[in-house]
Amino acid sequence: MSTSLPISIFIVEDNAWYGELLEYKLAQNPDYSIRRFTTAQSCLDNLSTKPDIITLDYSLPDGKGDQVLRQIREKLPDVFVIAISGQEDVRTAIGLLREGAYDYLVKDEETADRLWNAVGNIRKQLELRRENTRLREQIGEKYEPERAILGESPQINQLFALIEKAARTNITVSLSGETGTGKELVAKAIHFRSERSTGAFVAVNVAAIPRELLESELFGHEKGAFTGAIVRRIGRFEEAHKGTLFLDEIAELDLSLQAKLLRVIQEREVTRVGGNQRIPFDARLMVATHRDLAQEVKEGRFREDLYYRLLGLPIQLPPLRERGRDVLLLAGAFLQDFCGQNKMAACSFSPAAQQKLLSYPFPGNVRELKAVVELAAVLAESDVIQPQDLSLRGSTVSTPEPTETPGGESLRIQMANIVQHYLDTHNGNILQVAAKLQIGKSTIYRMVQNNEVRLR
Ligand SMILES: Nc1ncnc2c1ncn2[C@@H]1O[C@H](COP(=O)(O)OP(=O)(O)OP(=O)(O)O)[C@@H](O)[C@H]1O
């Protein structure tokens, strides 16, 4: 297998003949770019070019292998060093491996082949490392707030400023706002801008997990802790170690779990269900709710002490209807994305459709807008979306009847027929059908609510 990624290798060997042999072997792979050095100093002087791998002769005229290895690793901690020595001394080998050498080879007639294999193994690790870096960069880019969170209204600009502040420290962040306003998106943006971005972002929707499972979900359980606990399982707190734990719908946590959560946060240790070992964790906490948590405290449904523990930096997300022309900006971006993903001609909104979007209150906020736009793109008869293509709940703007097709069925009925067919063939699994048809799941939920389709 040849890799398209070049790998740079330094061969440090004072014996010219031996150096030649190693270079000859490795040069068989055209992706390896090789440089040879006969002294430790000449290698150290060239480390700024950042080789991926160094093969290091243990006995160089100007330095012993372990000292040179240390100097190399001080400058390039990530470089893979393969030590090569003429002496079969186990202690030397162990010492070098302890100093961080990747491998140790003894000079004999098979060294070149073993080096070839060792470099091949390193290459695989390097490819994984590069892939990881690439993915991490992509994620970082994706969650660069200015790119992922769309909007130009003063409210959104204030939000960007708060995200920057939150990302600079480890302070707990409490997000509030109506459903679909982007609370989870903001939590991710903060995580991926923070020093913890290389750690995991672990999201738990407290309301979506049955009470009896939630404790073990959060804190883990030991094998045999309860019927069904056939293996030990680490909880979300442990999973988020060095990263961020995002607890969504925190107001739905019942009072007994609130007490446990408070203790865990105070002590920064979890005890798995059925266990007695206290396991320290280092996760940053972010919480979100669509409720007024202070009001929940007043009404005795949320512990006051936990409330103050979690409040940290409060960020309130404005409803979409208060973001002025951001509605059109978001709608345009969602439309472009959807048409691009589905290889449809570029679409736009007619002025009347834009007006309709601007005058609708969007109780489901950005999530609803996205679903409405995607459905409109499917329903529209031309590449200009008209008001009647926008299916808004209880809309005040009068919408003409959907166009009749030659067969006499309205497009909306046809759409319902298609969705019904997929629901029937996918056991009523809304998520699967939404993915298959590339429409928002809320669109299908709405069709179910309006009795346009049925879950049989
Ligand atoms: N400003 C924005 N720019 C682009 N996309 C957004 C914006 N705000 C929200 N979204 C998108 O809207 C959808 C809903 O966002 P998100 O899940 O973050 O909302 P939420 O407030 O956490 O919802 P809930 O309270 O229901 O959990 C997601 O697809 C998200 O990417």
UniProtKB/TrEMBL annotation:
It comes from the Bacteria. The keyword Transcription applies. Residues 8-122 form the Response regulatory domain. Signal peptide: none annotated. Keywords: ATP-binding, DNA-binding, Nucleotide-binding, Phosphoprotein, Transcription, Transcription regulation. It holds the Pfam family Response_reg. GO terms for biological process: phosphorelay signal transduction system; regulation of DNA-templated transcription. The modification 4-aspartylphosphate is found at residue 57. Residues 149-378 form the Sigma-54 factor interaction domain. GO terms for molecular function: ATP binding; DNA binding. SMART domains: AAA, REC. This is DNA-binding transcriptional response regulator, NtrC family, contains REC, AAA-type ATPase, and a Fis-type DNA-binding domains.
